[in-house]
Amino acid sequence: MTINDTFNRPLRDLRISVMDQCNLRCTYCMPKEVFGADYAFLPPEKLLTFDEVARLVQIFSSLGVKKIRMTGGEPLLRKNLPQLVRRIFNIEGIEDIAMTTNGILLGTYAKQLKEAGLNRINVSLDSLEPLIYGKMNGRNFPVARVLDSIDQAASTGLHIKINMVVQRGVNDGDIVPLAKYCFEKGYTLRFIEFMDVGNTNGWNMEKVVPSKEILDLLQEVMPLEPVDPDYIGEVAKRYRYIGTNKEVGFISSITESFCSTCNRARISADGKLFTCLFATQGTDLVSLIRSRKLKDEVLTQFISNVWNNRDDRYSDQRAKLSKEPSKKKIEMSYIGG
Ligand SMILES: C[S@@+](CC[C@H](N)C(=O)[O-])C[C@H]1O[C@@H](n2cnc3c(N)ncnc32)[C@H](O)[C@@H]1O
Ligand code: SF4
Fold first, then answer.
1. Whose CA is nearest to atom 4 of ligand 2?
2. Which pTM value belongs to this model?
């Protein structure tokens, strides 16, 4: 089954935040000045249970979702995560399960996750320089330990991508070194433009390094050619290092909006459905499940209606919308990347 929104965009991908807490405090995501010791994270009983996640995935699958990505916060902080992966793997219609992680706990869990049915991992890694990485992650966490974890995950056969959020004057000097490192290791690097998600990360346009600028810089050292998208709605623009089968990707939400083909829904750790990364509010699915105890057919129809009415295209309208001060956006750590 396929359901479309008001711009005829089908529902295909579902991102599920399985944990709102994180063991890092990346400056662009959960700045430690805001997410301090007294920050009120969700109490455990508010988190979707594995039964609830599995039920929702089944319903979303019946509406056309084929790909699931687990995210957070830090998804590997969620206890027994491989059990959830296994349950999702067994749901009919789900063809691909991926996860985005900061990699800190990856060495411990990679093998179990792979065996449970996880295909792909994106690891966030913004610099190879210990000082820069330590500063950006807000906790001085050593980069060498994450690099080890990534290698351990790769040795299990998981396909690895590295996500680098580039900020001008912070880690733009790491673009070429990280590209070379990933090339040698066989990891696909994806450059992500620093985004204006949430309200706390001090975003401004001067800190954004446009993908075009990164591409030009990289081309001088490592010649690239464009690669056709694999499917409609592919977010990263991909390039191949000429003469190889190795690639890099660019996620350019700021300078090249991809709203027109966006087919993603997101569920927060406490079960709210968001139809845009830059949303100001979500639809509470948990109360429908827990208090109103809706049957599957009714819940399916409800979710289908939410998607049918979807008209989000924040990135297309960024310049206009960001001037509206009343718009309080959802934090990236709450909704997942
Ligand atoms: C919110 S994190 C959650 C998963 C996991 N903790 C991690 O760091 O990979 C998901 C992705 O969002 C990215 N991200 C967070 N804040 C961002 C921002 N302001 N602009 C661009 N990407 C951002 C992170 O770098 C990461 O790749
Ligand atoms: S980007 Fe990921 S690792 Fe960094 S603070 Fe956000 S949720 Fe945590």
1. 26
2. 0.94
